[in-house]
């Protein structure tokens, strides 16, 4: 049984809490953003072959590029937004590090003193 410095109890290797993502901001400065939500999807693409009657008789599946989205909490309303095409590293649900690139940045919103921005990202292939 372990109690950390913040007073949290954790009796195993259960991962909990928000992920901190270091992403370059629009000025190119490395900035830490807290991911309130983080979603990463692994999809597939399928090709089907049809017989002479138009019924599928063969298929081939292949993986597609991983894509995802996150809601990032900004330290303050003055914190600059993430830079489009900025590369960063995140940890997926299995604990594996994944290299990603920002593909979309939304407008920031402020509610009850918290400023957040939604981003989308894609897997870096090389």
Features:
126 residues, mainly beta, Elongation Factor Tu (Ef-tu), domain 3, two-stranded antiparallel sheet, elongated
Could you please describe the fold and organization of this structure?
The chain is mostly beta strands and 126 residues long. The chain has one domain: Elongation Factor Tu (Ef-tu), domain 3 (Beta Barrel), CATH 2.40.30. It is 0% helix and 57% strand. The protein has no helices and eleven strands. It has strands at 2-3, 9-10, 19-24, 30-41, 44-50, 56-63, 67-74, 87-91, 97-105, 109-111, 114-123. Strands 3, 4, 7, 8, 9, 10 and 11 form a seven-stranded antiparallel sheet that branches. A hairpin with a 2-residue loop joins β10 and β11 (114-123). The chain is elongated. The N and C termini lie far apart (42 Å). The model has no long low-confidence stretch (mean pLDDT 89).
Helix and strand layout, with pairings?
Elements: E1 2-3, E2 9-10, E3 19-24, E4 30-41, E5 44-50, E6 56-63, E7 67-74, E8 87-91, E9 97-105, E10 109-111, E11 114-123
């Amino acid at each position: 049984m372990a109690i950390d410095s913040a007073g949290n109890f954790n009796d195993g290797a259960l991962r909990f809490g928000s992920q901190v993502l270091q992403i370059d901001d629009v000025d190119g400065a490395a900035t830490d953003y807290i991911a309130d939500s983080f979603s990463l999807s692994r999809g597939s693409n399928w090709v089907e072959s049809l017989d002479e009657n138009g019924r599928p008789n063969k298929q081939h599946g292949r993986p597609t590029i991983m894509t995802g989205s996150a809601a990032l909490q900004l330290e303050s309303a003055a914190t600059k937004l993430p830079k489009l095409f900025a590369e960063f590293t995140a940890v997926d649900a299995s604990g594996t590090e994944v290299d990603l690139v920002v593909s979309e940045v939304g407008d920031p919103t402020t509610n009850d003193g918290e400023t957040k921005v939604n981003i989308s990202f894609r897997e870096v292939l090389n």
